């Protein structure tokens, strides 16, 4: 796959594409980062950004993963001790998912976010950011935003300063972080730092076809057992010949085909026998035409997701 295609596949937005193209053309090893709040289970929505980091790593980028323990604490996700312990577990999972340990730098927020220079930059940026802007930037990611805490207003400002202090060229996140990234792009130059280029991945649907929610258990977690995944996939929303808003097809688009060049859908001979598929587009076309039955698609998704998550289960079992 061409470098440009690898960098840009499965993205919802690049801000801006011209900046990204220039960066790749002029800098030997650009730096890209994602910040992860250690809060709750890692699910396939998180893994989507990990997949993008792997794409960038293969394209010559150096990768920084921020294990944002201070952010999680400010966003009411647990005590500092609890989120730090979860951050260590997250790190092991990210490596098991395929990040190269020799080319990935893991940084804990608590290792630098309490330093003098960092805090001074946070205070400087608070003078450039309105309260309304800070609140709006948290609408998609904050907890209990109908009655936000002051700490949650500091959260997006800290995220912008993270980008500056880590000397990031490209900030990577789900599209739900867009408002925070736009704050960073617009406000960082006012305190003496350059604007980052930002790339945003889509937000995956839950397995029931609606927004992912921990209360609905409509997602696949990296620590789900084989039986868990089989049970969840059996119930997954997957209307025949329907491509739009189909969460099972999304699994293939965002998780299976980035890791497998070709897949095999296993079927009994009376239903046409095994089917070899090369690439997501071919899979989508075959499903839309009715050549692939929804249950065959679900069974294949179950098989490949279990294979993909085996290294993570091994890491978690050994921990």
From TrEMBL:
Q: Report if keyword Nucleotide-binding is assigned.
A: yes
Q: Which InterPro entries match?
A: aa-tRNA-synth_I_CS, aa-tRNA-synth_Ic, Rossmann-like_a/b/a_fold, Tyr-tRNA-ligase, Tyr-tRNA-ligase_3, Tyr-tRNA-ligase_arc/euk-type, Tyr-tRNA_synthase
Which Pfam families does this UniProt record tie to the protein? tRNA-synt_1b
Top class in the EC scheme = ligase
Span of the annotated motif 'HIGH' region: 38-46
Q: What is the lineage of its organism?
A: Archaea, Methanobacteriati, Methanobacteriota, Stenosarchaea group, Methanomicrobia
Keywords from the UniProt entry: Aminoacyl-tRNA synthetase, ATP-binding, Cytoplasm, Ligase, Nucleotide-binding, Protein biosynthesis
Chain's role: Catalyzes the attachment of tyrosine to tRNA(Tyr) in a two-step reaction: tyrosine is first activated by ATP to form Tyr-AMP and then transferred to the acceptor end of tRNA(Tyr).
**Species in which this protein is naturally found:** Methanohalobium evestigatum (strain ATCC BAA-1072 / DSM 3721 / NBRC 107634 / OCM 161 / Z-7303)
Q: Which GO terms describe its molecular function?
A: ATP binding; tyrosine-tRNA ligase activity
Please tell me where ATP binds in this chain: 214
Q: Which SUPFAM superfamilies match?
A: Nucleotidylyl transferase
Family of this protein: Belongs to the class-I aminoacyl-tRNA synthetase family. TyrS type 3 subfamily.
Q: How does it assemble?
A: Homodimer.
List ligand-binding residues for L-tyrosine: 33, 155, 159, 162, 177
Record protein name field = Tyrosine--tRNA ligase
Give the UniProt entry's GO cellular component terms.
cytoplasm
Show the NCBIfam families listed in the entry.
Answer: PRK08560.1, tyrS
Reaction equations catalysed: tRNA(Tyr) + L-tyrosine + ATP = L-tyrosyl-tRNA(Tyr) + AMP + diphosphate + H(+)
């Amino acid at each position: 796959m061409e470098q440009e295609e690898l960098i840009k596949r499965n993205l919802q937005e690049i801000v801006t594409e011209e900046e990204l193209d220039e960066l790749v053309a002029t800098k030997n090893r650009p730096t890209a980062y994602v910040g992860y709040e250690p809060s709750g289970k890692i699910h396939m929505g998180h893994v989507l950004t990990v997949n993008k980091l792997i794409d960038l790593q293969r394209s010559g980028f150096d990768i920084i993963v921020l294990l944002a323990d201070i952010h999680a604490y400010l966003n009411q996700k647990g005590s500092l001790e609890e989120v730090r312990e979860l951050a260590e577990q997250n790190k092991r999972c990210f490596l098991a998912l395929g990040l190269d340990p020799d080319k990935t730098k893991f940084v804990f927020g608590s290792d630098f976010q309490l330093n003098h220079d960092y805090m001074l930059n946070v205070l400087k940026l608070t003078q450039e950011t309105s309260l309304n802007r800070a609140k709006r930037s948290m609408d998609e990611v904050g907890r209990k935003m109908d009655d936000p805490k002051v700490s949650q207003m500091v959260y997006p400002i800290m995220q912008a300063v993270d980008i500056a202090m880590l000397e990031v060229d490209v900030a990577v996140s789900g599209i739900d972080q867009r408002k925070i990234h736009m704050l960073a792009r617009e406000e960082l130059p006012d305190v003496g730092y350059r604007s980052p280029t930002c790339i945003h991945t889509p937000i995956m649907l839950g397995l029931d076809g609606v927004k992912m929610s921990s209360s609905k258990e409509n997602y696949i977690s990296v620590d789900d057992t084989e039986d868990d995944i089989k049970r969840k996939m059996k119930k997954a929303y997957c209307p025949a010949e329907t491509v739009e808003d189909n969460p099972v097809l999304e699994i293939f688009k965002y998780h299976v085909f980035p890791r497998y060049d070709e897949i095999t859908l296993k079927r009994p001979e009376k239903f046409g026998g095994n089917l070899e598929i090369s690439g997501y587009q071919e899979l989508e076309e075959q499903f839309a035409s009715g050549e692939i039955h929804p249950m065959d698609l679900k069974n294949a998704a179950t098989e490949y997701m279990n294979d993909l998550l085996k290294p993570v289960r091994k890491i978690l079992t050994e921990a």
